[in-house]
Amino acid sequence: MEQHMRWGAMEEEWRKGPWTTEEDRLLIEYVKLNGEGRWNNVSRLAGLKRNGKSCRLRWVNYLRPDLKRGQITPHEKSIILELHARWGNRWSTIARSLPGRTDNEIKNYWRTHFKKKGKPSSENTEKSRLRLLKRQQFQLQQQRQYQLQQEENGMDMKKIISLLDENDNNNGLPYFPQMRQEIIYPNTNDESGFFYSMINGCATMLETSYEDIMWGGLWNLDDFHGNIQPGNAIKRVG
DNA sequence: AATGTCTCCAACCGCAGAGGT
DNA sequence: TACCTCTGCGGTTGGAGACAT
Predict the structure, then answer these.
(1) Where in the numbering of this chain does the HTH myb-type domain appear (predicted)?
(2) How far apart are alpha carbons A161 and A107 in whole angstroms?
(3) Domain ranges in chain A?
(4) What is the spatial distance, in angstroms and rounded to an integer, between the CA atom of A7 and the C1' atom of C3?
(5) I want to staple A185 with a disulfide (CB 3.0 to 4.6 A). Which of A19, A106, A193, A234 is the partner?
(6) Which fold has domain A2-63?
């Protein structure tokens, strides 16, 4: 009971609303050191005044290094349509077939583009197309600014990275090198990024392409349903 | 210039299931 | 078996930017 009272008192102090860069940094450090999970420990171990749910959500939807940023592509759009027709609003299931996309992202996309019945897709209009182009330019600009900011923060990040190196010597978790790389090259679509090189490496090994690997999730899904599409591009080695 | 609308997306909430005690 | 805690999921809200009226 006393414990419950303490929890109740704690909950009064949880911060809500948009995350600051400092909070993001603390959460990233926490995940690097402790891995994903045990989210309710974050406030105690990382000094964050956020509850576990909020931390998990922030990590899964925004900070995770393997997230794919930017517009939903026409290819992704068609996959979303197909999988939604098959499974309905099971966003997390759909998201598993779209590498780098979150259930939240897909859910949001669906809501704004397909939810409204009776209205033709606004993307077909010239006006919307221009709006889309402008937005893409804006996002690109934001992404560049973010990368510049990362470079400016390089010294601080180097400190963190050296701390991680020390930590790696202790527990040898394979996850950390990727985290380090993503700090330096945060854009996973950038050819200099770890994610890109990793996928490309796999593509070379499997004698296929980057795109085919990226869409592997969907093909695996079809395999699961015993409905292999003709022209399945991934050659399975071995 | 002011206001309304659309789109995007981050974040919160409630609920349910899994797992531990 | 019952209870509790943690985690994940889906629904929903609200703010911000861009564009239309």
Answers:
(1) 15-67, 68-118
(2) 35
(3) 2-63
(4) 17
(5) A193
(6) Arc Repressor Mutant, subunit A (1.10.10)
